[in-house]
Design a protein that fits this description.
2 strands, mainly alpha
């Protein structure tokens, strides 16, 4: 058991064991993986992100293929090159390799930024629904089963389907407003 899981389990046990006056802390949980997999806007965002990432992959594969071709050409020609020409070509290849690595880092950063941009509205909607449920249901905590911090739980405390229902109802409301004159 990892330290974080042990800490969460200990905190939950102490929360459940300690009297909070006349109140008992109410805890619920969701599975965010299920919510993201079944919520249509999240599916659309995932598809859009995959399309963007596919373009990045194509670019990186082309850069890598060009670099490998240049290395192969150098290896075929190096025996016929002068020492100075070999050294110059090796420096060029080193610079090309650094450029490929730099571009890989740039594209990874862009991918992370795009993911955050695409999923931000979805996470805001999920957070709003969770806050509504927390207040309405008088929950002290709503945990995420996908984080694997929940070691065991009563299925009656699972709020995943309620979150999905509210998200989909909210999405229907937004679509109706967009179609209004």
């Amino acid at each position: 058991m990892s330290v974080s899981r042990l800490g969460v389990a200990t905190a939950l046990l102490s929360l459940a064991a300690s009297p909070l006056g006349a109140q008992v802390a109410k805890v619920g949980y969701i599975n965010s993986n299920t919510v993201l997999a079944e919520y249509p806007p999240a599916q659309e965002a995932q598809q859009a992100l995959q399309a963007t990432l596919a373009g990045y992959d194509v670019e990186l594969q082309q850069l890598q293929a060009d670099f490998e071709q240049a290395v192969d050409e150098y290896q075929q020609q190096q025996l016929t090159m002068t020492a100075e020409a070999r050294q110059a070509r090796e420096q060029e290849l080193g610079a090309s390799q650094i450029a490929v690595q730099r571009r890989t880092q740039e594209l990874n950063t862009q991918a992370q930024q795009r993911q955050a941009e695409v999923f931000q509205p979805i996470m805001e909607a999920i957070t709003a629904v969770l806050e509504e449920l927390r207040v309405e249901g008088n929950y002290a905590l709503i945990l995420d089963a996908a984080s694997q911090a929940i070691l065991a739980a009563d299925p009656a405390l699972d709020l995943t389907q309620e979150v999905l229902s509210r998200l989909q109802a909210g999405n229907s409301d937004r679509e109706g407003l967009q179609g209004a004159p």
